[in-house]
Amino acid sequence: MIMADLLRVNWFLVVILAFLGLYCLLVSRNLLRLLIGIEILSKGCILALVSSGVAIGKVNTAQTLAITMIVVEVVVVAVALGLIIRAYGATGSIDMWKLDKLKD
Amino acid sequence: MSLYLLLLVALVLFSLLAVVFRNMLLAAISLGVASVALTLILFALSAPWAATFELSVCAGLITVLFVSAVSMIRKEELFLKEGRARFALLPFFFLLFGIGFWFFGDRFAVALRGMPTLGEQVGVGILLWSVRSHDLLGQLCIILAGVLAIKAFFGRGRD
Amino acid sequence: MNQGLVPFILLPALAAVIAPFLWRKSRPAVESLSALVLGLGLIAALIGIPLAGQLGAEFRAARGSFPMPPFRGDEFSTLMLVTIFLISLASVFYSIFSVPGGEKRASYYSLILICTAGMAGVVTTGDFFTMYVFLEVVAVSSFALIAFSGDSEGIEGALKYLFLSAPASFLILLGVALLFLNTGGTSFSHLFQTAAGGGGSKAGILAALGLFACGFMVKAGLVPFHGWVPDAYQSSPAPISALLSGIVTKVAGVYALVRMSMFLHAAPGYASVTRALMFFGALSIVVGALAAMVQRDFKRLLAFSSISQVGYIVLSAGLGTPMALLGATFHLFNHATFKATLFLNGAAVERATGTRDMTQLGGLGSRMPWTTGTSVVAFLSTAGIPPLSGFWSKLIIIVALWVGGAKGYAIIALLASILTLGYFLILQRRIFFGKVVSFTEGAEEVAAGMLLPVVVLAALMVIIGLYFPFICQLLLDPAVKALL
Q1: Considering B54, B80, B106, which residue would you say is the last residue of a domain?
Q2: pTM (2 decimals)?
Q3: How far apart are CA A11 and CA A13, in angstroms?
Q4: In C, residues 189-228, which contact B (CB 8 Å cutoff)?
């Protein structure tokens, strides 16, 4: 029964992960946890891409997309971490609520 | 089949833990475990290349980066209380959406039952290098951009 | 094998790699190299318009066939390339002269070059996924550039941009996955084929397009996704603000939205997406114009003004008639020139007077004649005064809206334009032509090198405005042909 609906199950997971990630981004105060939220979103995307590929028979194309996406994601995460460390160095805190110097 | 479902549950569970844990170190490790679960899922979906990349990069590299970042930050800063009260109703809406999706999600995908699967003969390597070579160029560019960005952040200051 | 417009990506990327090594040897070499590469790119893009026209014609001719050949670039892409290289060149030029000697670290020019390469990648590819990859290249280099000065303001702006840009990329990727599921591929050809031929599930493709639209709207800084724009523009170093406002938001967001409109109008049945685009465009026009009026810091003023102008472009693109698309494309190019000029001049004013607070400035005209002149031209052009270029693009947009049946939107656009005009005139009178106040006493005109880019851009605005029919034939008609 579930086998025939593999696609549906997979995409349901994608939706769950998407909401989990978005929830994390909305409520988090800690900069590192915001990054975790972004990571969860990325996992959802990888699952989405590969499961779509499996469903239509083009697994290998989906894999190439997933591989490229993973590479891109790791660079973004690395740069984001660098930025967070700099923020910590400049303000001594990774609390997002303390970042409000720019409002006029 | 049940193993597959177990893996899916593990993925969601450990991601949830990563969001909820107060201790950032545990959160990072939890994320790593979730990555491992995703790797196994990808293997089960017959996508070994993607699974390997996911394992070595997400479960490995990103977890290491996170842990080293956590180690650079003072202990007090890591245990902030999250401001969750405002968003208490949100999970409820998500649940509704999830149920709706489960029952009505079929409309968003082409009907698969009658479709002939266009099995792919071409291997991943060849695909990547010839069909999607632009993506490779993009990967080079982004690695370059990332290196330059890190250099700009932590470089040796005024020359 | 015909590589299309790929060399435009390779050249700046190569220069970006070489630059750090050259830095040790000689600083001026790096600066000249950057300027040279960007200048070459600009000239090549201008010359390449006919070639790109040929490529575009091939693509369009093959529309009915199955499978469609891959997209390799067309006139619209080349026009975007011209804009990209022009503004990058202006930004680099300003940077060269604004900091005497070696305060800039080696990576600065490399980052600008790789950012340009990334943008070139976005506009020359025919595949949504490749677009995502190059968008991330642009995003990563933008983070580094915004935070470049190292002060906490810059870092804050970069972080805000990061935490809005990442979910936007995620939305785009989900859209790609849905597209992949429904059409078997991720390129323009696949979308086009399936949408026109009725292959995949219509709801699915609509959902994919909706996700794309949301993602690209965040990147373009459209209301209600504009939260990161004022902070990022305000906190980045001046030439970077010019770069960001002039092209990064356009390439990242607006270009894709215009392309989507282009496809959707050739394939009927997806009108809801374009209607939504028009709505958010109009919303941005109004919110941006109103918010701009209550700002004190001129960088924030310019940021909100950008949001408003981008609204014009998206509103017009959403309508999709040939005239509307012509207006949108033209305004895209024009606005890049306006904002680049205004941000660069704003930086010059800040250097000379030490403040960004507009309530404290007055009477600059007597002290900084060139800056004043070019700023006035840019302000007037933004507000749409004849015979400057801005007048023509706004006129085309408003007329296209009226003729195309969106009379309500046309009126909104017109009213907002008048509002902006009034406000800018008042502002200009006070800052440039009013009484000289304490802050502006000691202000001196800035170095000639820094003035060169803005003078060139202002001249462009005037020339394009005066010779509009000629420009129309040379650059814009081909671009619009591409869009249909």
Answers
A1: B80
A2: 0.89
A3: 5
A4: 199-201, 203-204, 207
* CB nearest B120 (choices: A30, A33, A58): A58
In a domain, A23, yes or no: yes
Give CA–CA dist C385/C394, Å, rounded. 9
Q: Looking at residue A85, which CATH number applies to its domain?
A: 1.10.287.3510
Q: Given an 8 Å threshold on Cβ–Cβ distance, is A75 in contact with B41?
A: no
- Looking at chain A, which residue has its C-alpha nearest residue C166? A38
Mean pLDDT by 10 residues, chain C (484 residues): 60 72 69 76 73 66 58 71 84 73 65 87 85 92 85 83 90 90 79 69 79 88 81 79 81 84 71 83 88 80 86 86 81 86 82 72 71 82 80 85 80 86 79 68 65 77 74 64 58
The answer to whether A36 touches B31, Cβ cutoff 8 Å, is yes
Residue B116 in domain:
no
The residue segments making up the domain with residue B6 are: 1-80
Q: Report how far residue B66's alpha carbon sits from residue B135's, in angstroms, rounded to the nearest whole number.
A: 27
The residues in C 382-401 lying below 8 A from B, measured between CB atoms, are none
Question: Is B56's pLDDT higher than 80?
Answer: yes
Q: Is residue A99 part of a domain?
A: no
Please tell me which of the candidates B138, B149, B157 has its beta carbon nearest to residue C143.
B149
Question: Among C328, C322, C169, C305, which Cα is nearest to C226's?
Answer: C305
Domain count along chain A: 1
> Using a CB-CB distance cutoff of 8 angstroms, which residues of chain A are in contact with residue C150?
86, 90
Identify all chain A residues contacting C166, using CB atoms and an 8 Å cutoff. 38, 41, 76, 80
Above 60 in pLDDT, residue B157? no
Residue A80 sits at the chain B interface (C-beta within 8 Å): no
Three-class DSSP category at C297? strand
Rounded to whole angstroms, how far apart are CA atoms C398 and C401? 5
Q: Which domain holds residue A8?
A: 3-92
Angle formed by the axes of helices A59-91 and A31-56, nearest 10°:
180
In this structure, is residue A43 part of a structural domain? yes
Residue type at position B69: A
Mean pLDDT, chain A, integer: 83
Pull the structure tokens for residue B48. Answer: 């070994």
* Sign, CA torsion C96/C102/C105/C106: positive
Q: Are the CB atoms for A24 and B10 separated by under 8 Å?
A: no
What is the ipTM score, two decimals? Answer: 0.91
Q: What number of C-beta contacts closer than 8 Å exist between B and C?
A: 106
* B136 in a structural domain: yes
Establish if B33 belongs to a structural domain: yes
C-beta of residue C137 within 8 angstroms of C-beta of residue B142: yes
Q: Tell whether C185 lies on the interface with B, counting CB pairs under 8 A.
A: no
From CA B49, how far away is CA C389, in angstroms rounded? Answer: 53
Phi, psi dihedrals of residue B46, rounded to the nearest 5° = 55, 50
Chain B, nearest residue to A4 by Cα: B113
| Neighbour-count burial of C79, counting CB atoms closer than 10 A to its CB (0-12 exposed, 13-18 middle, 19+ buried) | buried
Q: What is the pLDDT of residue B65?
A: 92
Domain assignment of residue B110, yes or no: no
Q: What's the total number of domains in chain B?
A: 2
Interface with B, mutate which of C8, C105, C124 (most B CBs under 10 A): C105
Three-state SS sequence of A37-91: HHHHHHHHHHHHHHHHHHHHCCHHHHHHHHHHHHHHHHHHHHHHHHHHHHHHHHH
Please give, one letter per residue, the 3-state secondary structure of C174-204.
Answer: HHHHHHHHHHCCCEHHHHHHHHHHCCCCHHH
